[in-house]
Design brief:
The protein is of the alpha/beta class. It has 16 helices and 13 strands. It is globular. It starts with a helix and ends in a 5-residue tail after the last helix. Adenosine-5'-diphosphate binds next to helix 10, helix 11 and helix 14. Adenosine-5'-diphosphate (ADP) binds next to helix 10, helix 11 and helix 14.
């Protein structure tokens, strides 16, 4: 149609602005590596926070006994227990329960939230039996996965900087969340010990490393994104005042805050300006699941408004932020039919377009592909940046041998095109030979067991 022809320049322009040719990927990977170094030297020197996890002891496989994990990071929290049997028997058994957090608790007081958590934990502990057995003379130990910004002060303490992800609990910011949990457990009459406080990426890395010692990096690509990796202590200048520099620790990069050299469009800038955290988390807004659908919606809204794409059936729905979600893009990209029937259905049901031509449906798939390709390739460049930094500090000990990246998150798990764009970028950056040494391992929900393993590796009884 003529409307379609008029909308084509928008698509061409988008392709141009979202392009991620090799030199751009190189720049992003180099900038990521440089920013990592800056953040390791001095707090606040770069965009990446490079938060030391205080995890100096990774699980080795020799751990034995019963350990618990608590995972708070979204609208659900999880409790888990695991019975460890040492080198040969590994994980003898594990059990977990998921509890959704009521809205009033998310908007209540610190005491209410932690009382709620302690009560559910107590409930779960009361059902312990079967293969689970606590060693004599010990208290039950907990690995606490807490996926909010924390200023960690030791392996088992950390101060909440601020709540995110819809939590608006009063009175917690500035306090040690482990102390808050301990106080609530005491009120509950629950005698347990928090042995490790960890971020979810750190839990994922520890969990994956337990099964595969070549795992050096963990990446989350879900609603949001983050990455952590194993760093040598003598490469962390900002920690040198603490004394011993031997050994390794896990560094939580908080890479979502990265922005150097990203190919951004007017659609990204507008989305950012209208977000709850303008100017922040730009890498996350370009590559993670929460935002890909919304960027595409903004492109389609412009095509509809300025070029009459969808004729006169242009619906108000398309004007609603976040109606089009990343799983919709994914479903449209899997449509292999001649008439793009699935695309038509999504357009009708999700954005209220009653009629669409085949050319329009094709254009919408092309827009989605363009945004998803940019996201996947930039994620690949980010991972390459981390590996590149590790490689140059280790005289070729990273790319010269098998190195594994543990990957978790619904975006990576469910979006095949995103996955292949990510891999493609890494192959372009490393070349066919070195990239064969980099293995991306999908670990599903590794962070819960990972936290329990970290509690075991950092046991108060060791
Ligand atoms: P979270 O990151 O919220 O802790 P997940 O790791 O499960 O949880 O990731 C959920 C995200 O994964 C969703 O917000 C969405 O962006 C993405 N996702 C989920 N399902 C799909 C799908 N079928 N196709 C593409 N993306 C998906």
């Amino acid at each position: 149609s003529s409307a379609m022809a008029a909308a084509t320049p928008i698509l061409d322009d988008l392709r141009l602005r979202c392009a991620t040719p090799l030199p751009l990927l190189r720049h992003v990977a180099d900038a990521m590596a440089a920013d990592m170094r800056a953040g390791l030297a001095v707090d606040g020197a770069g965009e990446l926070k490079m938060i030391p996890s205080y995890v100096y002891s990774l699980p080795t496989g020799d751990e034995t006994g019963l350990f618990y994990a608590l995972d708070l990071g979204g609208t659900n929290f999880r409790v888990l227990r695991v019975q460890l049997g040492g080198k040969d028997r590994r994980v003898i058994d594990s059990e977990s329960e998921q509890v959704s957090i009521p809205k009033e608790i998310m908007h209540g007081t610190t005491e209410e939230l932690f009382n709620f958590i302690a009560a559910r934990l107590s409930n779960f502990v009361a059902k312990e039996g079967g293969n689970f057995r606590l060693q004599k003379g010990r208290k039950r130990e907990i690995g606490f996965t807490f996926s909010f910004p924390v200023k960690q002060t030791s392996i088992d303490s950390g101060i909440l900087i601020k709540w995110t992800k819809g939590f608006a609990v009063s009175g917690t910011a500035g306090r040690d969340v482990v102390a808050c949990l301990n106080a609530a457990m005491e009120r509950q009459g629950l005698d347990m010990l928090v042995s490790a406080l960890v971020n979810d990426t750190v839990g994922t890395l520890a969990g994956a490393h337990y099964w595969d010692e070549d795992v050096m990096v963990a990446v989350i690509l879900g609603t949001g994104t983050n990455a952590c990796y194993i760093e040598k202590n003598d490469f962390i200048p900002k920690l040198l005042h603490l004394g011993p520099v031997t050994g390794n620790t896990i560094i939580n990069t908080e890479w979502g805050a990265f922005s150097d050299g990203l190919p951004l469009t007017e659609f990204d800038r507008d989305m950012d300006a209208e977000s709850i955290n303008p100017g922040e988390q730009i890498f996350e807004k370009t590559i993670s699941g929460m935002y890909l659908g919304e960027i595409v919606r903004r492109v389609l809204a412009k095509m509809a408004q300025e070029h009459d794409l969808f004729g006169h059936s242009f619906a108000d729905k398309l004007a609603q932020p976040f109606v089009l979600r990343t799983p919709h893009l994914c479903a449209m990209q899997q449509d292999r039919s001649n008439d793009l029937g699935e695309v038509e259905l999504i357009l009708r049901d999700v954005i209220g377009v009653k009629e669409s031509s085949l050319a329009e449906r094709r254009a919408i798939v092309d827009v989605s592909d363009c945004i998803v390709k940019r996201g996947g390739r930039l994620a690949g460049a980010g991972i390459a940046g981390i590996l590149q930094k590790m490689e140059s500090d280790s005289n070729g000990q990273v790319l010269g041998r098998r190195t594994a990246v543990a990957m978790d998150g619904g975006l990576y798990e469910n979006y095949p095109q995103y996955r292949s764009y990510m891999t493609e970028a890494m192959v372009e950056l490393f070349g066919p030979q070195d990239s064969e040494h980099v293995v991306v391992e999908h670990t599903k929900d590794g962070s819960g067991i990972g936290a329990a393993l970290l509690a075991a590796a950092n046991s108060k009884y060791a």
